[in-house]
Amino acid sequence: MRILIAEDDSSLQKMAGRLMTYWGFDFDMVSNGQEAVNYAKMNGCAYDLCLMDIDMPIMDGLEATKIIRHELRYFPIMALTGNLGTKKRYLEIGMDDFLEKPYSIKNLHSKINKLTTKVEKICLVNKKLKLTKETPMNREELQELIELKKKGLTKLKLVGTGTTFVVHRNIQNKISYDIVGEGKELSEFIDRSENEPGRCHLYKTNLHVTKDIFTPEELESAIQIENEIAEKFMQVVDKKIQD
């Protein structure tokens, strides 16, 4: 996790830095909006989130957000401010959320977890399966992921195929176990997309997927069975996949 923090108050900088370190997050600290823009450009938007103060010298957080949204690829930005009188404007210029100062540590951590929700990705690298995470393409996709997360679901994207599925939150760990841990040539999972749900067969060699479409009755039964299986993989992370 890498976070860009734009804050001009030195005491708040120190507090935020201590919190990021305690939570195990990498971070860059800047003192005004112009520096925030420069860091975002310099680092190729390699941030999972920006915590943006509004009232800062040289360039305020609103103007910085406008530039970032206009010139750089999307990443979430949350306003941290003591003035929520213009919160509608924050969203209109491209911010994703806001948190009023003074804020509780619990609320800040909760907001960070929500706004850093990502798409699960599967790709082939040198004929090896690799699982990664991808920042949403825009605010609409982020909100979609947040709503899916509330239901215990996520989006799974197969890189190189252009195919995306709605799946159980643990399904990537099951796929890892099947293909890497067990050495199977394919893994099964349920696509829970509203428009065309079905049982998917993912083939290791080329990430090709075939799907058997469910009737509503079949879907309900299959989901119950998969939920029981997928929950067993909550803590399963195959290190081979991360290599």
Automatic annotation (TrEMBL):
Residues 2-116 form the Response regulatory domain. Keywords: Phosphoprotein, Two-component regulatory system. This is Response regulator. The keyword Phosphoprotein applies. The lineage of its organism: Bacteria, Pseudomonadati, Thermodesulfobacteriota, Desulfobacteria, Desulfobacterales. It comes from Candidatus Desulfatibia vada. The keyword Phosphoprotein applies. The modification 4-aspartylphosphate is found at D53. One of its GO terms (biological process) is phosphorelay signal transduction system.
